[in-house]
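Action item from last week, closing it out:
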Amino acid sequence: MPIPVTTTTDLAGHLLCAVPQLEDPNFRRSVILMIEHNDEGAFGLVVNQVLPTSIREVLGSLGFTWTGEPEAQVRRGGPVEPIRGFVLHDIDGWDPLADEVVEGVYLTTSLEAVAASTENEIGDRGGRLLFLLGYAGWGAGQLESEMAAGSWVAVPLYGVTSDIPGMSVAPGWFLQAEPDAMWGEALRSTGIDPARVVALSARRGFPT
């Protein structure tokens, strides 16, 4: 099956799945939540790369106490500014300054507002969240060129009540999916068989 090419000019609110032919090791089999995309460039967060560092360690170094799953690990959001932190979550009102980046999913870029209402204790509070360090960034026209070259597959995110079966995933899916399974699951949601993509790349001599 040929890889579909998106016709949208704004990829914010989409997931991007790297194809095996993309040789940049920073993005091997990566799944990226696109936050911004305009004429000046694009910004997204890799959601399926796990770092060996625990959330407890990172927050402890910043003076916060982590009250969530003790072994929860930080994700690598991308190669740009690798010490800059982000939180993706579905906890409405947890951070009054958070931006809703897709339906029911919020992006927190500073923990100051959260700390003020939680006495420096941070946890999942009944919701789901990902802590990430770093981000993925593109200059003007760079992502468009990569899309035209077939380096990425765009996967739309739709609400549960408006899903298009076989062509999308629900917005909060990446908050709970297993990191190792995300790439394959996201591709399958568009009708692409990941095994065939990998096999085709191997025959052409690309790393898989």
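Closing note: The chain is about 20% helix and 30% strand.
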